[in-house]
Amino acid sequence: QLQPVESGGGLVQPGGSLRLSCAASGFTLEHSAIGWFRQAPGKEREGVSCISASGHTTKYADSVKGRFTISRDNAKNTVYLQMNSLKPEDTAVYYCAAGNFGATMYEYDYDYWGQGTQVTVSS
Predict the structure, then answer these.
(1) What is the per-residue pLDDT across 47-103, written as a single tens digit (0 to 9) for each?
(2) C-alpha to C-alpha distance for 71 and 21, rounded to whole angstroms
(3) N or C: lower Cβ tally within 10 Å for the chain?
(4) For residue 44, what is the DSSP state?
(5) Three-state SS at 95
(6) Please, what's the b/e burial string for 74-90 (b: 16 or more CB within 10 A of its CB; e: otherwise)?
(7) pLDDT for res 73
(8) pLDDT of residue 19
(9) Maximum distance among all alpha carbons in the chain?
(10) What is the distance between the alpha carbons of residues 78 and 50, in angstroms, rounded to a whole number?
(11) Which residues lie below 8 Å from residue 83, measured CB to CB, with a gap of 6+?
(12) Cα separations in angstroms, 22 against 36, 39, 42, 122
């Protein structure tokens, strides 16, 4: 089954950092754009960041610019989301998704989705 697998979520205090990983299960991520999305309780899923297959193009939601950094290591078949200066409003389930439409923040452009990893920012 072609499915990305997220890891790295957890509980962190405000101002802290986490690094999420998105690894491939059953396929290579090398030729896919990867998007990170999140969904907080009672809210719609939103795009957080995305990266092109080459890694040359990255995009961020305004709410995370300057705090989150997306990167990829194709040799390790993994995409990362470094999250710094975390805020309580970053609390959500974070999903990674793979697609072939380039780096977009639209969930409909992604075909393969992970199960998600919980990030909780609380003191």
Answers:
(1) 999 999 999 999 999 999 999 999 999 889 999 999 999 999 999 999 999 998 889
(2) 10
(3) N
(4) -
(5) strand
(6) eeeebbbbebeebeeeb
(7) 94
(8) 98
(9) 39
(10) 13
(11) 17, 18, 19, 20, 64, 67, 68, 90, 119
(12) 9, 17, 25, 23
The CA-to-CA distance between both ends of the chain, in Å, stands at 38
Structure tokens at 5: 């697998």
- The answer to whether 94 touches 40, Cβ cutoff 8 Å, is no
User: What was the pLDDT predicted at 1?
Assistant: 66
Q: Would you state the structure tokens that stand for residue 98, as one six-digit string? A: 């793979």
| CA atoms in the 13 A half-sphere facing the CB of 30 | 5
SS3 at position 78: strand
Q: Are 99 and 33 in contact (CB under 8 A)?
A: yes
pLDDT for residue 101:
87
Residue pair 61/49 in contact (Cβ under 8 Å)? The answer is yes
Residue where the block lists tokens 């078949």: 77
